[in-house]
UniProtKB/TrEMBL annotation:
Subcellular location: Cell membrane
Species in which this protein is naturally found: Streptomyces guryensis
Similarity annotation: Belongs to the binding-protein-dependent transport system permease family.
Positions of transmembrane segments: 28-48, 90-111, 123-145, 165-184, 226-246, 285-305
Domain ABC transmembrane type-1 as annotated: residue spans: 86-301
GO BP terms in the entry: transmembrane transport
UniProt name for this protein: Sugar ABC transporter permease
Gene3D superfamilies on file: MetI-like
Amino acid sequence: MTLTATAPARAARPPAPLRRCLAKLSPYAYVTPFFALFAAFGLFPLLYTAYVSLYRVELQAPGEMQWRGLGNYTALFGDEYFWTALRNTFTIGVISTVPQLLMALGLAHLLNYKLRGRTLFRVTMLLPYATSVAAATLVFAQLFGRDFGLINYLLGLAGVQPVDWQSGTLASQIAVSSIVIWRWTGYNALIYLAGMQSIPADLYEAAELDGASRWRQFLHVTLPGLRPTILFTVVVSTIGATQLFGEPLLFEGNMSGGISHQYQTLGLYMYQEGWGFFHLGRAAATAWVMFVLIVLLVLVNTAIARRRTRKEAQR
């Protein structure tokens, strides 16, 4: 009895044109899930919000839509509380963003040196960012209490009269801004620290050999090397300030942003229009105004950064 071994049959390979076509299409298959999710949860809500902003839609009957055209935008721009919210958004954004980024830059500069326990300091700076907005805001609301708050107690020790942090315009905006500063300073400091560590050490050594002090090194080596990182943090902080919502909502617990709307932001105004007054059409119009405002602010920041880069390149 003889046994004959037969080689296994090879699987049929697709034709060469089909293989080339699959090789060209395979990269798109990897990015398809991202674009599918973006279209479903990003692009479609954006376009549908623009569609709803052209109609009169009430929360009690969302299926009954009445065409208004630009009527929601006209009513929005004619509302004095909208302009108050826009002004508050700008003021709180400046009060919270500028000190926040300056403090983050200083902390990152300190942590860039070899300090004992600097890993512990880096982890500690991320703790406020990991804290929920609700918990942080409720704690700060107690700290800024008029009668029994710790801040007024410390001011009283210095001989300063108690401040009504929830009723005063500037005082309430400072209180809300302090929550934003506390939560995001450490996060931005770690971003700056990562940017500083990417700057070549040879530049610092050359500057030190030329007799430059640490302050001079910071001005002429660190800051130019951090320019892209600073632009990124400015843009992200601007977007975050325009969308500020949780802190002013939970600071006193109402949608109006205080008795006289003194710290109501655009995000809080949009929420009040949609879920307080049930005007979904005007809320959608407010959302699109915020979107256009964010785009304009980002373009302005980018244009200013490019102009400075060109001027320095021409020197």
